[in-house]
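testing teh design pipeline on a random one, pls ignore if ur not involved
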């Protein structure tokens, strides 16, 4: 730990510059949690749902085309 502190100080970065040891504000934590759980996870879930619906509709169209070709070949 001390070696890491010496490296940080020797490399020209001060702890205050990196905001090390500072307590996060309640507003900052709230905003970070909202971004994580509402925006990021919600966006990912919406993307996965839309992707799945697209795959299902595409497969259904392929099945209908295959059924039409089968019906045409067998006189139905």
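output:
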């Amino acid at each position: 730990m001390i070696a890491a502190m010496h490296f940080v100080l020797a490399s020209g970065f001060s702890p205050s510059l990196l905001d090390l040891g500072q307590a996060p504000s309640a507003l900052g934590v709230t905003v970070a949690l909202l971004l994580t759980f509402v925006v990021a996870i919600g966006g990912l879930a919406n993307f996965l749902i839309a992707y799945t619906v697209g795959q299902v509709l595409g497969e259904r169209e392929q099945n209908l085309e295959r059924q039409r070709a089968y019906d045409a070949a067998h006189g139905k």
